[in-house]
Queue: 4 jobs
Job 1
Amino acid sequence: MIQKLRLLRSIGQFDAVNTGANFDLRKLTLVYAENARGKTTLAAIMRSLATGESLPITERRRLGATQAPEAIIECTGGPPPAIFQNGAWSRTCADVLVFDDAFVDKNVYSGMDVAAEHRQNLHELIVGAAGVALARRVDDIAAEIRDHNRTLREKSDAIPVADRHGLNLDDFCGLAARADIDETIKASEERLRALQNVEAVRTTPEFSALALPVVDFAEIDTLLGRTVADLDAAAVEAVKQHFAALGQGAEGWVGTGMRMGPQGAALTPDGDWPFCAQPLSESALFGHYRAYFGQAYTQLQADLAAAVIRVESALKGDALAGFERQVSTAMERRGFWSPLTAVPEVVIDTTGIATAWQQARDAVLAAIRSKRADPLTAATLSDDTRAKIRAYQAAADNVATASDSLTGCNEAIRRVKEAARTGSPATAETELKRLRATKNRHTPANVTACQEYMDAKAGKEAAEADKVTAQQALDAHRAAAFPNTLTAINTYLSRLGANFTLVNITPQPTPGRPSCVYRLLINGHEVPVGATAATGNAAFKNTLSAGDRNTLALAFFLAALEQDPNRQNRVVVLDDPMSSLDKHRRMQTIQEIRTLLPRVAQVIVMSHDEHFLFEVYDRVAPHPGGNVTDTTCIVVGRGTNGSTIAAWDIESEKLGRHDKRHALLTEYVTNGTGDRLKVAQSIRPHLERYLRVACPDKFRDGEMLRDFRNRARTAQQNGAPIISAAKFTELDQLVEFSNDFHHDTNPAADAATVTDGQLRPYVKRALAFVAV
């Protein structure tokens, strides 16, 4: 509740007003003020107290004031009181709700139009504080998501596009590390190259084995050491001396001769040698020849000749050239296959091999030939020859090793051929890009960048999930609030006497603040509400009168209050809830205030119409035991400098009005002057005031004239009349006539007409009635 207005300084008409501290504001507080005295300023101060916004006060800073606006108000939540100083409140009283022109301008219409902002504010009014909090939560999360998106863009920009090799950010950051990434990339590159050269892969052979010719040098060495075992040394010496005497090549041609006539088969019949016809029977040397060139000797020479052939055949020049061609072919194939699969680097020094080949061949052949020249002398390979043989054999071993390395790749080459036969270059290229992206993903820079990106993305996804939850809660709240509010609005429109209703009031999810749309139903026709109605078409501004628009605004306010779960704690401030445009709903407004009072914490009614406040006082203020309770009446009146606040003796004011009415009625009867409609409207309240004074124990405070008449009728029927039967009949007739000129008994009272001939007798009778 608002308990006291302790100080109002430099605000509007209030220069330095502290008289409000002298009285308490109770559950029902009535504030009377003439126009321009500060009633609207009070409403603005109370709205500022509710919202904490300073503008309603600061924009009303008193002209010429040397001090800044200040207010001290005792209200719920204290002590201490709420203090407005230096442009801010020390605390607020959020339970205060104000209905005034500012409410209408903000939530319903401005001028004659309903703008988008009005529908946005109306949406907030319908969903209430809980719905506004839900909508604000959705908006806050949406703003959070926008922040996440900005961060996400920054983090994504930190990851080079080239590093991703065509992958999107999520896929790129999701790539798992691989320990064998370099080897896998290499294999993938090879596979792609194979697929891009599929015909060459299909037709290029595998590796063939490489080998240097195999020569059994040990066998040759053994052969060189052989001799003819059955020749004695004397024979051998004699033959050799003879060969030496014969000259170079003697052993050869002698041996040939001996073979031409083996065992003497070619001698003459007399046993003579055919070349000289000399007898050989007595030649000791010929016997030595027979032993020397015997079977063992012949076999040895044959073996040596065969060895020469084997060595020359194996290590001939053509064979060396052929080997070099094989090496060249192997190197070409390696050059082709090595980009497609793992092929070891091999080095085959063909120049060195050729040298070792030729040197070993020549040295061995020389050794054999030397042996052939002296077959009976055991020989052996020289150290130099052996070194050359070792060089050749080392070369052969190197070639064998290189050959094994190359032919060992043939299985992999067969897999390459098979993959090239069945694979797709596009698929292989995609796989390679993904592998390269995988390697890039796990560089130190990208590890950090991806983690930051994934953290930002997780934050955004969490916010989006929160928004879905918040939106669902808001939608559920709207689903209940809008139908209930529509029903409540139409109920209040009906009770306030409106000739239109609302249809299809629905929320509208617009960018930024949510809004709502609705239609008016007037005489069975729907009229859309908006600020953009086409010229000449039915619209809000040309289908509702000013009074209708005010009625709609009040219905909105009351309907929102009806749906407010915190209604019992609300302080409701009504600033001119019924203006001169709303006379047709005067009684309905008073009845709604009466209905509202027990349902809220406090009702403050402010008006420049004292008669309206008289009626609110009489019909709304609590009257337990016939005495008005829990009601405060104050007046904002003219002071020495601006306006002041004082207690208002409404009872005395009402009595003073009775005297004025009596003078009005008397003047009309006597001189025929005055407004006939106003005179006719004065008859009933004049009778009512008279009876309150004349029958104080029977006409209780807070009751209407109707209540007194019903009590008097019952008393008369029970034989204990309050007034005489004749006077009661007169009262009934006078009230029946006067009811035609009051809205609570005749909605068309403003249009009622009365002639002097009709009115004057009733005025005379009324004056006679109160004269007794």
Note: Residues 111 and 381 are 129 Å apart (CA to CA).
Job 2
Amino acid sequence: MKKFFSVFSIIVLCGYCYIPIAAQRVGQFGKSQPVKAEAAKSKGIRVQVFTDEQNTVIQWKDDSSDPAVGFDVYRLSASGFERITTASILGSMPGSRAEVEPVIERSFSIRGGAPGEVFVVEGFDQTGTRRQSEPSASQFTGDLASISGSDSLTDQSQTGQKVRVLERSALDLPRELKNETMKSVQMPDSVNQLAVAAQGGAKIGIKVNGFYRVTKAELAAAQFDVNTDPDKWQLYANGVEQSILVEPNGDYIEFFGKVVETNESDVNSYFLIAAASAGKRIATAVSRPGGVSISSTNYRAVYDKKQRTNYLWDILNGDAENYWGDLISTNPLNFSFSLTGIDTTASDASVQIKFQGFSLASHSMSISINGNNIGTQTGSGQTPMTGTFIVPVSALIEGTNTLQMTSAVAGDYTLFDRITVSYSRKFVADQNRLDFYTNNYKSTLLTGFTTADIRAFDTTQDGTPVQITDFPIVPNGPTFDAKLAATRGRAMYAVASNGIRQAAFVRQNKPSELAANYRAGKLLIIIYGDFYQQAITWAQYRSTRDFPVAVVDVDDIFDEFNYGKSSANSITAFLAFAKANWQVAPDYVLILGDASYDPKGYTGQGYSNLVPAKMVDTLYEETGSDEALADIDHDGLSDMAIGRVPAKVPQDVTNALAKVMAFETPLMQDINRGVVFAYDLPVGWDFEASSHALGDQLPPSVSKAFVGRGDVNSAATLLGEINQGRYIVNYSGHGSTGVWASTGFFGVNSVPQLTNSNSLSLFTMLTCLNGYFINPTADSLAEKLFNAQNGGSVMSWASNGKTTPDIQMIMATRFYQQLSLGNIKRMGDLVRDAKAQVPGGSDVRYSWVLIGDPMLKVTQ
């Protein structure tokens, strides 16, 4: 019986390092693996189980002094406890920076279930020692979504499965042919791209290489003018015109599309315009049989499959992706991959496997394919590893193959990354498509097509494919063969009608001219396109004759500054251009749209990276930075005041503007509404003293309340102070994405109890990770406060990473000094001024974010 399950994570205290994605892979329960009797019982893992009889959610917390680095879930059956996690769920990364009372929370779901079913969670530490929770029986609930934190477990798990394993095929070209193709690679034309973007038309997105057809209906739906002359339709990629086929009546266009995947995007964009001159078309060449009787039997193909199930921010690897696959331990990890068209008469295959070290010690893994041992991979620490193995072709199977990886000793943990297989492949079509190359002056017989309408294209010259005609097509049983005459070696692509691909999307490309000197905007509002009307309302609120506001669709930035591909660097390039060239240059940037560390949707949460943040490495972790987006001169400080409204839907923007407008009145901007300073226990730092030091920066006349976590009824006292409508709420202490030190003090679960909707507060949070807005599966405390409609914040200034209290105090002291003086009126300017006091380095500057409007006027 097939099962699916999902994992949800909340980072509870600063120092926790791993963020599991929100949907574990679909799989089958394998051979029963009973819980080991010698595993020590521990009260450190506490489990609750809930079911609505369609899905079951297992939740647990681990507050052990030595948190587990991974977990497995077991269910009681007639034969005992059986492991139901096909891969271990990661916990705390070995060697990560922990501060105080680390608590790891996890959740795991399966389809089906009934009240009373019994589950056990087993954790294992860096040495391999295992400990179990007490058995927990499932309880019935009618609202499983609110418990799981997911609106749709089924949808998320199924969607996640589609994107978390990525397969690619390529050609291992002979040297001569590879050199020829490399010489023909088209160089991007940024100037021409601006002209294409300015004209408008249709934007076509693709995710895999292949031959594509876009119909007139699709173009019309994208508001492309299909009544223009089809002979003048032109298609562009990277600012360079591509050869295409156009049906004479304009019923469709066809083209050969290529994808170059980046860390931020797996989509390549093509732009169709109705030009003033004839477009570039795919030429034809006749296949002319010669006297050569030698035929090719195979070509060298490259198959690549990577797994993306675990995001780790602790791995500081620069611009490389921070996603990896499942955990390898002494519990064997099986990973399936599919090969087609294997030429069993050919020589050996080359298998390359990549890993990422997880535990701190040395690594040694035995590796097998289909039960055949192919070697051992070694390495050390938390570093990447690559193993290349030469295997006999007999070890490979047509269809599904199984890669098995097993650590040699307990406590040796490694993450799987990807497998790449280079092998000799027969010229057999796969789903009526065949990407191949011909060998010098040998004929080529293509087989395995299910229909006779086979077309072949010479794709050697980048962007200029040539259609090969007049080659014989003959039936071969239930399939059809096509024979290409001997010529000089060529990169080729053959396709039947039912193998033609459909675009991932066809959208309107509205004309844009961001790279124009006549533009003006003291405030730039950069938006996700769905928020346009709400952004216009915000712009109208801010703009005056002397203060122009420009609303900019982030897609237009991508189109003009990155050839249509999503990237954070393109936003920086645009801001640099606007600052240097616009008639009125921007001083403020307001982003309307959420961001995510998962731009390619590995979590199965849908597209949540609406306006990207710049992913940066800080001292302790990778995180997302808006500050870095606006750091034009790369000195670690933004060159414009920048803030973000992490909106997911248009109503979020409307609600945020309503908060801003309500706050920007004399009554609300009065600091004499009072300030509350909440602080943590003095573990590693005297947070009470810091709070009083900040209070001393304010005028004596300002009412100040101090609430310590160790005080009697501290949580109730703090809620009461906030609900009185204080001007500022400050917290100093340990924390993480959703809490101030402890859920029993203040956190995301406290937000529904707020009642200060008529007297909103500014929140400054001198702790770790309260501003972690890039998690695609859960909102941070700063976001929860900002989005709350029952009160909360009009602005949250918080950290999107882990920083130390000494540096936090430098910024905070300056902030409260200037706020007291009243000379700096707007929140974004106060933040920039405070960050400028941090001596050197970019960690704190980059990782502290303003959740809200940088133009928020905080004083009269």
Note: The domain at 511-629 is CATH 3.40.50.12590 (Rossmann fold).
Job 3
Amino acid sequence: MTSIRETSVRQHIFSLYNLSANEIYFEDYIVNCQSTLNDDQETKIKGRLKVCSKSLVFVPIDIRSPMIKILYKQITKFEDSKKNELSLTDSTIISSISNTNKKQPNSLILICSSVILMSINGRIEPYTTLYGTHRFYFEFIYTNVEDCLSVVGQLYRATTLPYSEQVMMIESIVQGRLKMLKFDLTQLQDLNETILFEEDAYVIKPLIQNPGRCLLTNQCCYFQALNNINEQKVAKYDLRTLYKIAKRRYKFRYIGCELQFKLINQQPNQKKILYLVFANENICSKFYDTVTAQTSVKIDSTTFENMTLRWQQGTISNYDYLLYLNDRGERSFHDCSQYPVFPWVLRNYTSTNLDLHDPQSFRDLSKPIGAINIERLERLKERYINMSLPSDHQRFLYGSFYSNPGFLVYFLCRIHPQFSLCLNDGRFDHPDRLFHSLIDTWKSVLTSDSDVKELLPEFYMSSEFKDIEDDDDDGDRQDGEFLMNKFGIDFGIRHDDVPVNDVILPPWAEDPRDFIKKMRLALESDYVSQHLHEWIDLIFGYKQRGEEAHQADNLFHYLTYGVPEKHLSTPIDEYNEQLSFETQILEFGQVPKQLFFKPHPRKLTEQELKEHKHEEKMTSTNMASTVIENITNLTDLQLTDQSIQRLPSFEEHDLGQFEFDSVCRLHKTAITRIVPHPSLPLTHLLTIGNDGFLRNYMVNKSKMDTFCFVSSRPLTCLKSIPVHLAIDTNEKCSLAFIGSSDNALYIFNLETGTSILSQVLHDDIITDLYVTNRSIPTLLCTSSNDATVRFWSLENLLFMNEDKYIFQTNYHFSSKIQMQYDISFDSPCTCMYVLEEHSLLSVGCQDGSVYLCHFQTGQILKQLTSSSSSSSLPILSLSLRSDGLFLAYLSATTVTLVDIISGTDVFTNTCLSNEQMFKSLFYSSQMLIVGLTNGSCDVWNLKTGEKVHTLNICDKISITTITHNHGMFFFGTDDGSVHSYVFASRLQLSI
């Protein structure tokens, strides 16, 4: 976005902002102008005549003469130098007059009823309209007048038509001229470039759409405008500097594409933006796909991935997260009807000191801005009840909106006065309605029935926080410059005789820079961090529309939510209605795209981060018991965050390095589980596989120690525990609990290699198991493809004494374990995870469902459903964080980390191709490791949400299971091998 800067250049600079909003500039001609505006009508003024869709604009070379805009609708007569007259008062009749005008050869003569003078002496000021009959003579120096008359005649006729037909005719003229536009191939950066895409497009900037030709090669993206508005004929964008690309919704249709490029040899936080709009969605998608497929495009997708998780953990600021949400919500700095929206966070604009530790300094973020004042809200509700509208219209509380072009112009009129002149037909608003004082604006937002505006990002853009700038060529931006009348514009005098100059700041702000700094500190404060998720729910989340919006007093005019479905594909007879919808957007704005359909999780406060920078140690109230205590209606089971302390889980960005140690093939077929040996945890591992064997692996010698044959069917799950043979002795052994695809459980004594129990527990494959270490009696929990999770008593085999398993001396080997209770599901249970200290059981199913249950009662607390398109695929693995607040789960195509309290996905990653599907999962507080079918593992830092390693474990062999034990990671593979890696970490991992 280009702001007006002070300049010493003594000539006019014509801009598309000199035209009406979205008016098209076609071409210009070098002319000499004579007119009745001058005292000396013989004086010729040299300049350029700009032919535009709604007007002619004469731009004199001498800045002492004003630019002159002549609206077609004010023109009463055209003539050329041969007196060939186009009668504009009698339809389209053209009469030829044979007289020759020797005085004005090759000239266009026009008569109009009014003219508009712009930029008198180069000043930024409202335009001046002169009424009365005025005659102009434009002498064409290098071109023939007939060339100009042909297009001007068409454009004039368009202005005499009804609005919808006028727009259609202008669009037709634009399309006709675009067809004749040939891209200048001499402008290519390299003649060896391969042309991949070429289509008509519009470049979009606030209030501006400029047509031209877009050409894409394997190296660059080019745009050649239909006109000569730019200094360079062709704008060039090097794909190697492409930083980001996103599809955009423009006028209700997904036909826009916004590209951001890093500027070479500029500040690293600057970028250049190209916002293109195409004729339809197919062309737009083709352009997007072609760009992203280029090898020269190196977009770091991790920069924008998993932002919710990064925000929760405090890695990114509230400001950056709001920018991210605006971006995902289809908001753009180049679309004034969808400009990024930020909240009012303060309500104290009167005191001399601003206390950011006082909650009374802040606005209630749980309510929309229109609902903060109860008296006003009651008035609006009464109007809502009495509102009478056609049946296809929905009633609304607020007739205005919190973000629209008018509010953008209101706040930025000092730094971007051209916006106001463009949108308001060459005028600034009345001085009493201009942005004059922060306290006055806040009072209006609280009391006026028609004022519910929120703020812009500019209110929080502080250079002290090193923000990414959002202007593509505004590198010298100053903090709060939009609050200063740096161009000395005369905005007029208010009713109290006070001139409108710089914005009057609150007493607690020393100057604009200090104001912006304190506004930003307020945005990043603990209070806002604790409550910002509530505002996100209103603007981007589940309270944005529907019944939740109604309950939250958050209802706006129905068109701000988008065109009704029946209007998305508009026939000719509805064209006028479609245009009225677009006019509504330009005036009232649009609701952002809805991003969340569940309550948004809150952010960890700064104090929490300081208090808990060490490795998490859960000291809060047991979550599941808190849940049950707070649930009074069992038909509406929900998790609450009362009495739950959210803790961060790591402190460094650098997790550490993986160093290969050894590899050993233990099984003939795939390894299904690896666990530490309970009696020899530092030196031995236990593995099971599809070959039916249980094997004891010596890590320090990288070879197999002992083995047991368990079943002729593949083994699926394994749990091992140390057992004391008596209370008063240290003599002990180890037991292995093994689930099998023959539906049976096997228990083995690892010291003797003998079987203790073999019992069928399910009607289908046992997929997972767990042995309790806290409950009385000791329980075995098993999940199965028969769609049940069953709980079995082990009291005849084991009992607990002072946190030790004690073997029952009177156990009879022919005894069977008895089922205590079970949980039934709608789909086969493919995996489970138990967090016994918090009484939580998570279950993954074949249909992609994930359930959270109370471990002791079997009560289903919550069903967690992924928002990804692959949620119907079976869940392969899942794991709970040790504090019970986050759950990671994996399907063949997607890995997801979900905030359990809100149900919001805070981290997601999707596999790139069918050749590298997801297979196995390891999750700890610091990291997430995903094993793939191509033999590699991706390692993600959950503090930053970034992928920090890709481990190439083996070649084209699936990673079937991942285990961590005492500073080492062990990867089981589809060929029966165990790959060992030493993990050198800067952190004290407790995994």
Note: The domain at 656-985 is CATH 2.130.10.10 (Methylamine Dehydrogenase; Chain H).
Job 4
Amino acid sequence: MASSSTTYTNGSTSYGQRSNLKSRLTSLDSEIASVERDIAKLQTLRHSLLEEKTGVQRELEASMGRTLSARPPAGPGPSNASARGKGKGKGIDYMDEFEWGQELLHRARKVFGIKDFRFCQKGVCNANMDGRDIVCVMPTGGGKSLTYQLPALLTPGTTVVISPLVSLIADQIMHLREAGVEAVMLTGATSKEESRDIFTRLGQKKQTKGRGAVRAVDDGNSEQEEIKLCYVTPERIAKSKTFMSLMEKMALDGRLARIVIDEAHCVSSLGHDFRPDYKKLSILRQLFPTVPILALSATCPPSVLKDLLKILKMRPVVDGNAATIDGTVYFSSPLYRANLHYSVLPKPSSQAAAIQAMADYILAHHARDSGIVYCLSKKDTQTVADGIREASGGKIKTGVYHADVEDEVKEGIHRKWRNGQVQVVCATIAFGLGIDKGDVRFVLHHSMSKSIDGFYQESGRAGRDGKDADCVLYYRGQDATRLSSLICGEIEGQEKLHEMLRFAQNLTDCRKLLFARYFSSSSDLSTAAWEDPSAGPGTSLAKCGHCDNCTRSPSTIERRDVSVQSWQLLRIVEAVCREGGRVTVGILSDLARGLAGGAFNVSSGGKKRKRTEKAELDLEDVAGGKVGLSKDDVETLTIQLILDHYLKEDFHQTAYAINVYLSPGSQAPRLTRLSKSAVASGSGPRLECTFMTAKRRGSTTKAATAKSKQLSIKDSEWIPKRKPKASQPSQIEGNEDYEAQLDDEMDDIEAADDFGQQRQLSPAIFDIPDSDETDVQEGDDWQLDFRGSKRRPSADKPASKRMKTERESGRHNVDTDADGITAVWEDGQEVYVISP
């Protein structure tokens, strides 16, 4: 019986569970039926709303057409605005007059001191006021900031501006506050107390009517003012959930006026300055589907534009001069700026001489003007700043700016530079994006940029006020080696660097046309982007008439047939590589000219410490004798052979750096399969190269202890000729020579007679950090590869009797024995020896 009772109880429990499940099922069926009835109602409502939306869109389009056709023409002659504004698909011309036009211009004059709009500023402001999504491509210095700052004053709510660099944000905030505009920034440098205050103010609802926010700018009561512009970095958007939550609240309350993405090309990995955090901005359209987005850039080729629209989830672009009601309104301005005068000047071989040349140039041409000197590394900025100040006898006041400088110090340097207390800022690329100082009269590049895109943007910081400004690049062939090691891992990095090298090596073609060709081929941009707005259409392929190549005297350059010299260089590289040696640009230049006794190092192996042995190069047997070119000309030709694929660069990773060596390229057999006499008689391809005819006379004085002299030809032969200003002499007085110094760059060897002068180890290894301010970092000292000394330590001097004083310079060990013989060891190899 007990067993039967237990079975009944279990059966009773199972029955209760089934009953409950049936009841829940009935309840769910009822709820689903209710939801389906609601869905039917909502679908009916949706259909009704869609019909209403269509009607409103048609009415708005028709209203735009009537408004435009009713307005008087903006300028002389009949306006075509009415034709574009009427009818389906005709579109809106945002360069026309709108009801807010007078207020825009009034505010531009009163708040920003701007008398009239430039380029497409007017159209972008109008489209902004109309609540459109916009992409605006305008050259550096074209006035992109005004296109969102001005509309922000005339619309209720806050405009959030996403900007890549803290320095750029600080500069914008400084200018806006000086103009009386309530602007704030939220960056890593913002204190917690200030951040809390900003969050509180942004989270509060403002009781404004119509254009009340505009009047708030002039009230002078900060407690009542609405924050008009809030600047943040892309990292803040990508990583701060608190700020994104605040933005959502602002959007729901109708207080998020628009979102601006500055330097928008950083969104695309196809652009020249891609930043991963920018790509995360794709979330903006999902979270804020009704908030208009403005994307700004100085260079945005079609491929980048397509990628940008996809990532930001923006609609296809429509022309800002004939914009339909849907789509992203697109504006662009000519990239050519006629007030910028471009020059490429020969860079002296030693660092001290190069710095002296820049100081002389500034004193001669811009003694009282503000300028920027761009350097490759943080370490270079300090060296160049100190050097220019000393070389000028204290006449040029310099400041240093890079990512590792404390924010307070950066702001101080920036402020002093703007008010004239600092004349020249020596900086990495961390300084410049959006820096709004109109009277920058010169931008010098101590080292070459990694791409023409970067060079165009960096040099474009000059002459923003529309007045004449100089953009000068100091270039020598070995700069290519240093840069190659930095960008070998970048997508298209090598191709972009080679285009920059072609630009620098070109001594004949107009710089404007070189820019136009590059952007037309690499970015699919129309050459019309390089038209001179003041000269009218059809001028895109006309020479500028004021760059160094346009104004250069024919007597200062010479184009030569270098087929035989090229054959010689290629045979030397082949011979070194065949013997297991490695050759750099500097070593090749020395070997080709018969220096260092024709000796080069080859590895001899070894278990514990790799050793090197000397190999002798018989120039007569290998290359038919010495190459009859100067050091600089050999370097120029070597770079040309790299660009034409007769030579190629090989990259070798060490524990500390990437070394760059040369080897025969794919085109080399076209020459090397022939004899020297065959090449000389015209067989094989004919190679030509343009060289400067001015020569530098050498001096054995150390660069560290003597000032360099000036160029051996008058400065006016190098600098573009234009009407000189009162404060700018047309040329440097005197006709002196630059001294040739021992190279302090990577693996550059001078004559054997100069080996007794110990050289200072140069800076060399650079990495690009993942930070808000992308600088090149030096890390350890610059990779050195001195090979081929003429003298070796005395064979009768045992190594055990050497007095070793190991000094670390990067990863180099420097040993000095009792006789004063110094050996530099690199990765276990003795690569350079200095005899007393």
Note: The first helix runs from residue 2 to 70.
